[in-house]
Amino acid sequence: MSEKYLYIETYGCQMNDYDSERIKNVIGIPETKDPSKADIIIINTCAIRAKADQKALSSLGKFKNLKKNNPNLIVGMTGCVAQLYGKKLLSNAPHLDFVLGPRSIPKLPEIINNIEIEKTRIVETSYDVEEPFEIMPYHDKGKVTSFLSIQQGCNKTCTYCIVPTVRGKEINRPADDILLEANYLIQKGVKEITLIGQTVNSWKSNGLKFSDLLNLVGELESLERIRFTTSYPRDCTKKLIKAMKTNPKVCSHIHLPVQSGSNNILSKMNRTYTSQWYLDVVNRLKDEIADMAVSSDIIVGFPGETEKDFEQTLKLIEEVEFDTCFSFKYSPRPGTPAAVMENFIDSDIAGKRLSILQEFQRKITYKKNEERAGKIEEVLVEGISKNDPENLMGRTSQNRIVNFAAKNNLVGRLVNVKINNGFQNSLLGTII
Ligand code: 5AD
Fold this sequence. Notes:
Radius of gyration: 22 Å
CATH superfamily of the domain at 6-124: Methylthiotransferase, N-terminal domain
Low-confidence stretches: none
Number of strands: 20
Shape: globular
CATH architecture of the domain at 6-124: 3-Layer(aba) Sandwich
Structural class: alpha/beta
CATH topology of the domain at 6-124: Rossmann fold
Largest sheet: 5 strands, parallel
CATH class of the domain at 6-124: Alpha Beta
Bound molecules: 5'-deoxyadenosine
Strand order of the largest sheet: 1-2-3-4-5
Mean pLDDT: 96
Strand content: 15-25%
């Protein structure tokens, strides 16, 4: 029998990247980048905004002909769109063999086996998986940085968000299990671990808090750096700030989505803090931790957002001076409370606000990058630079990309680089 191949397409957040690696590991056949050579095709989808789930559905359409020509081909959809639409997907796409929610990845071998033997079509979107973290990702050797999932699902109730619907209630992975995977990664040569979870800093398990976990991971030898994402502002405790400050491996960067600068909108979003409260947390972080970088997510055009609300968001951006900020036009998601709110914002108006905001932030990011010129930065070298094969690429503790000329054997090492120029998305320097 000839060897079988898996083709997988991944959309969305770090969680999905991580899940795709788990899928590769649990299926256990080599990957191909060419769908026409595949025996199993999987689309791992994202439902965060309407655009993302449309992408997932149109991606599915691409594989119709392959299935027609090869009835033994197995086509599956996993991830958040799979969870959201469930069996409706099977009736809409006759060439789809299975639909599997994000919690059910450990059940994948059994499902594929059943399809092969019984030629059935399967929908698995229940949350009754005993060991949701059972399957580790397929971790490549030679990687300098890696994600490590410490939490699935989300217990927050933000009115715009589909995540709690499609990923279920928060479950926290036990510390021992996290340390086991961390050690495994370190043995493979990983130097920087990014702990991931939907609200990663709300992690708790057996009496331990997230700050304790940072310290436990910090004790692992040969690990140089720890990052974590995404943080929920209300769970940014003094204990956490202290752990970040005292643990030298924890990077000086936090991704802390604010979503809006208007208290009126924050309240409608049910974010459970005010803009002043958010500013206080950011100021505490910046006061306590030298050279602290803060990035954020913002939604514009939330139902009822007035010009004044929008201006308050710009004012908050000006005050914090985010290092980077991802911003999105509000997109109603089925079944969420915000989708049935009044005073929807006209798409053109929301679009205009989005461009104003993005232009405003672009200037701040550029200015902050330019200010690094002349400074010496510690950089963890990740690999060859994308734009110039003569250069290496790495990141500073603040998560800025640095390109610099050097010899290849520095990959995986911490080096000092003198910054010569700051650009919009990266810095250019000389190794010293
Ligand atoms: N519409 C637009 N943006 C959204 N996000 C989450 N839900 C929505 C939505 N319905 C954004 C938030 C979140 C990021 C991952 O996506 O800013 O932090």
